[in-house]
Amino acid sequence: MKSLYIINQPQKLNQALPFISEQDGILLIEDAVVVATYGSVQANHQTLYVLVEDLIARGLKDKVGVEQWNLVDYPQFVELTLQYDKSVSWL
Amino acid sequence: MMNKSICIVFNKAPYGSQAGRELLDIALMAAAFDMPITALFVEQGVYQLLKGQEPDILDIKNHSATFKALPLYGIEDILVEEDALQKFNLNVQELVEIDGLKTISSSHAQSLLANSDFILTL
Amino acid sequence: MATYSLLVTANPYSSQGQLRAIQFAKTLLEQGHELMRVFFYADGVLVASRLHAPPADEINLTKAWAKLAIEKDIELIACVTAANKRGIVNVAEAERNALTGNNLDPAFEISGLGQLTEAMLNSDRLITFG
Question: Which of B51, C24, C28, C103 could form an S-S bond across to C33 if both were Cys, CB 3.0 to 4.6 Å?
């Protein structure tokens, strides 16, 4: 099964990564969106998404590394939760 | 319908938050509904299982003994991440004795998570 | 079309989780999906009080949930143990615990954790907002 891992705090991404499979997706929301604006993530083939509303709110939309990150809005967020078999909020 | 599986992930130490206690309550309730349940302890969550906890000193109820009772509720898959034990300089002998408790690698945990219908953290 | 349930554990006015859950709920309903139940647990139950009085230019989260519940006929359920502990009580729980008042917003119900398990068993997706 493919899972969508939802991360809402920046430090949680590295904590969750060892448990995320290659076919999974990772969605950054809330304060975690800053991660998409600096450096690169040691992702292991996972597809990476970031919630655009949270970027805009923080003035960060133009700072995202778009080669690595797919920007999604709320309608696409809902669609992602269906495209993946389950969602995991790694709190 | 009734065989959807749930993996409950303990990833925080006690007692700074009540996440451990509140996840435990979810586990016990789901067990009453006959859902197949795995309790997975990763990262700082392994501290939930450490022997010798005395939270009474903080006026906090000690929930660590309830982990021992998990098999009585039909929760038999109780898994602890090896890497976390190593990282925090702990060994299995220092954890509360639970029938059937096993240690697993991160990659094993990864495939277990991939195969669960629901995953909960708090 | 899919059936969703939401688990909301975020503290209402200290974090973004409740707002995000409301936005997510609205969006999934707009897309024609079904929202079976929203279950409030841990600090998430705090939003079920009808006594919140945020400044006039800030969102009232309780009213936002209530509007959604009434317009779209959605169950909002707060866990009884988490709620009682945090001072969120309905008339029955106030009487049972000999309290002098009650504060549950009428759009919300108080019930047990079994309602969360039931939501998992009967929904295609459970999304947690912490």
Answer: C28
Report ipTM (2 d.p.).
0.95
DSSP letter string over A4-18?
Answer: EEEE-SHHHHHHHGG
* Nearest Cα to Cα of residue B26 among A20, C3, C119: C119
The span from the CA of C104 to the CA of C114, in Å, is 20
Write out the residue range of the structural domain in which residue B105 sits. Answer: 6-120
Fold of A3-89: Hypothetical Protein Ychn; Chain: A, (3.40.1260)
Per-residue pLDDT tens digits of chain B, which is 122 residues long: 558 999 999 999 999 999 999 999 999 999 999 999 999 999 999 999 999 999 999 999 999 999 999 999 999 999 999 999 999 999 999 999 999 999 999 999 999 999 999 999 99
Active site residue C79: yes
pTM (global) more than 0.95: yes
